[in-house]
Structures are given as structure tokens and as C-alpha cells.
């Protein structure tokens, strides 16, 4: 009878060593520092913006490069604030959500590094953004459908709109990834 109880997977542990072997001690939550968030999101945003920046710099004048850089900096600041503001929330500790974010942002950076793929995605989102921005900011329309001749404000607005559009596309991708992770987790149970 004792032998069958020892083989019973539902029997409680009898020693401290068995208890620790059964349930590993959870790592204490260590929030990310502001500096770490700034470093991570600067890398993610710069790599992700590279195809758009290359495409935009080839179609606009040097004066608007500063507007594009400011737009990227705004996204970096936004990501840092969101990262710092939400890291203690329970949904951020969910393993499926954390994995989804890692897969989503790493995929975005890899696509950006593989320039033809990133360039195509960014080009279509950029053209869509120029169309939206030109309906809001009259100086964009002009004679050039690609937005050449934009002033600082128009280039900044277009950069921000494109960032929002690209993040919406990335969000859609991450929803699909999260769904796949949840299905795999359920099948593994």
C-alpha cells in the first residue's frame, strides 16, 4: 500500500526537497528600469523604422529628415511610457501575452532588416499614410502624389500616421500569434 502511495502523482511531497523539486520557486518580479525600457524601445523603433526612413528620405528633402526623426522619437517615448506604466499589470505577467509581444516585435525587426520585405510593407503603409495625411494637412497634396515638397509639419504628421498604421498591422499580426499560442497551449493540456 505504501508503494502505491509513493507512485501516486497526486500524493503530497514528504520532504522539503520534494516540495522544491515539484514547484520551482518563482522568480521575484523585477520591474524594468526606465533606462532599460529606453534602450529596448529605441532599438525596436529604430530598426522597425529603417525601411520607412530609407523610403521617405529618398522621396523628401533633407529638411524633413528631422521631422521623421522626431516622429520616431515620439514613438520611442510612447513605448517607454506604456512599458513603464503597464509592467506591474497582471496581463503583462501572462506567459502567452509576453511570448506574443516577443514574437511580434522580433518578427517586425527581422522583417525590417530583410529590407525588400520590410520596404514593401512600409511602402504600402507609407502611401496609405500620405493619403490620410494629405486629407488632413492641405500642403501635402500638391502636384506630387508621393508627398515630395512636404514641410516639417506635414512630414511629422505623415510619420506619426504611418507609425500608427504600422502598429495597427503589427497588432493584427500579434492577435493571430496570440490565438495560435492559446490553441497550442490548450492542445498541450
Plain-language structure description:
The protein has 189 residues and is mainly alpha-helical. It contains eight helices and no strands. Helix 3 runs antiparallel to helix 4, helix 4 (65-86) packs parallel to helix 8 (152-188) and helix 7 crosses helix 8. The two termini are 30 Å apart. Mean pLDDT is 82; it is low at 22-26.
Compact description:
By secondary structure, the protein is an all-alpha fold. Helix content is 76%, strand content 0%.
List the helices and strands and how they pair.
Layout: H1 2-7, H2 16-22, H3 34-59, H4 65-86, H5 90-93, H6 95-113, H7 115-136, H8 152-188
What tags apply to this protein structure?
mainly alpha, 189 residues, elongated
Quantity of strands, as a count? 0
| Structural shape | elongated
Determine the N-to-C terminus distance. 30 Å
Uncertain runs? 22-26
Biggest β-sheet strands, sense, barrel: none
Amino acid at each position: 500500500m505504501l508503494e502505491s502511495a509513493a507512485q501516486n502523482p497526486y500524493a503530497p511531497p514528504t520532504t522539503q526537497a520534494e516540495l522544491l523539486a515539484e514547484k520551482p520557486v518563482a522568480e521575484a518580479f523585477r520591474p524594468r528600469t526606465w533606462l532599460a525600457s529606453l534602450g529596448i524601445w529605441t532599438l525596436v523603433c529604430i530598426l522597425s523604422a529603417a525601411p520607412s526612413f530609407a523610403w521617405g528620405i529618398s522621396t523628401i528633402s533633407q529638411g524633413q529628415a528631422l521631422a521623421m526623426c522626431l516622429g520616431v522619437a515620439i514613438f520611442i517615448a510612447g513605448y517607454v511610457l506604456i512599458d513603464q506604466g503597464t509592467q506591474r499589470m497582471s496581463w503583462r505577467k501572462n506567459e502567452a501575452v509576453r511570448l506574443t509581444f516577443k514574437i511580434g516585435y522580433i518578427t517586425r525587426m527581422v522583417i525590417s532588416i530583410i529590407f525588400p520585405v520590410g520596404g514593401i510593407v512600409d511602402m504600402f503603409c507609407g502611401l496609405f499614410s500620405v493619403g490620410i495625411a494629405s486629407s488632413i494637412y492641405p500642403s501635402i497634396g500638391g502636384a506630387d502624389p508621393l508627398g515630395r515638397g512636404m514641410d516639417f509639419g506635414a512630414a511629422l504628421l505623415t510619420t506619426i500616421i504611418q507609425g500608427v498604421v504600422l502598429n495597427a498591422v503589427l497588432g493584427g499580426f500579434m492577435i493571430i500569434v496570440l490565438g495560435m499560442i492559446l490553441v497550442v497551449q490548450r492542445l498541450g493540456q
